[in-house]
Amino acid sequence: MALVHDGDARAFEVIFDRHSAISFSLAYRMCGRRAMAEDIVQEAFLSLWRSGARYDRARGSVRSWILGAVHNRAIDAFRRESARPTVDIEVSGVGDAMPAPESTESEVQRRDEARQVREALATLPEDQRQVIELAYFGGFTHSQIAELLSLPPGTVKGRMRLGLTKLRIALGSAAEVLT
Amino acid sequence: MSDAPRQHEERGTERGPCGDAAAYALGALEGAEAEAFALHLRTCAVCRDELATFRQTTDALALGVPRFQTPPQLRHRVLGIVRAEARERSRRQPGRSRIRRSRAWRPALPSPRAAIGLAAVVLAATAVLAGVLAGGGPSSRVISASVVGVSGQARVRIQGEHAQLIVRGLPAPSAGHIYEVWLQRGSSAPRPSSLFGRGNDQVDVEGSIRGVSRLLVTLEPAPGTSRPTSRPLVIADV
Fold first, then answer.
1. Number of H helices, E strands in chain A
2. d(CA A153, CA B172)
3. What is the sign of the dihedral through the CA atoms of B61, B65, B68 and B72?
4. CB contact set of B80 (below 8 Å; sequence gap of 6+)
């Protein structure tokens, strides 16, 4: 990252190749449209490049920073353009994006990571998992979720808090390793 | 359970932003609520710690999505832009180097005895220094910026279409936050520019300064936002 700070394009290329696939996967999961996902990822990486890598190191790893940037930009896009896909859309992986190959050791590791997270999510009570997924992947505010589910806003916030706490416990020490 | 967390929990159930860390980490607060919580983080260590913990968990959520390859055209586009900008920076680099070396040089003051006789020399040296600071190219100008609500000083150095923001003595951003520079043209919405994370810094402003009427700095949740979520701390009328 120091080389990226110094404007080294080759160093940035390494960062891009290391983190662009998961970034695109997150953006695509959130918006369901390849072109929009590409724009979001492009904006996030160029922001990192143009800031001279002056990202907040207290935010964690580079991957954490980039995924946060992608997530924020996807939410901004939803709220700006009402471009959110309908709630019941499922990203099946057979649309216009190419699934990641499954043969390399790093891809095996990534599949394991994904499996751990999905298994941890599945341990949550349905009401907590639902509000977390609507917020994180759907980009809905707590007020919108409250309206969708006919719940008091305070209840939604409480379920988010409890759900994230339980998810962290379910992930265990994996949460620190994964990020 | 110690008093601080219990009191914190009670505040969260009664009123105010305590207790919003989970919603904030999920991106589920909007507008004024998000801004209020970001400001609240400056004074509440419990919420800061809680947010850091929740963010680790929300970061892990991203890893559970179905995995896809990076579209080749996306890679080609992003790296093409980066390489072009790197070449442009490299072309401009010699000018920045001269500015940095000049700031470190201090001309020796003439002794009182020689003051009169050397006055013309001093004036000439100053003119040379100004020319070196300007990079030998288009004339540069320096604008003092207003710093609002926090300690510190700021100024903007403009040379041609490029600007540099110099800040001194601003408070270091709290955990989870970063300073973000915005460029505003007339009454249009401010557009995001550079990011920086230190109270003493010299920041190359991203984007052309041409047509910009105002440069702003706000404190934003890292890694920055696409729209300001808090009041400007630095304002420079360009």
1. 9, 0
2. 34
3. negative
4. none
Q: Which of A107, A142, A165 sits opposite B28 (nearest CB)?
A: A142
pLDDT in tens, B71-101: 999 999 999 999 998 888 888 765 444 333 3
Most confident of A4-13, A17-26, A166-175, B224-233: A17-26
Contacts of A176 in chain B (CB under 8 A): 56
Q: What is the rounded average pLDDT for all residues in chain B? A: 76
Residue-wise burial string across B206-231, b where 16 or more C-beta atoms lie within 10 A, e elsewhere: bbebeebebbbbbbbbbbbbbebbbe
In sequence order, what are the residues at sequence separation of 6 or more whose Cβ sits closer than 8 angstroms to the Cβ of residue B51? Answer: B21, B24, B25, B41, B176
Single-letter code of the amino acid located at B137: G
For the CA atoms of B168, B170, B171, B177, what is the dihedral angle to 10 degrees?
-110
> Residue B166: enclosing H or E segment and its boundaries?
strand B162-168
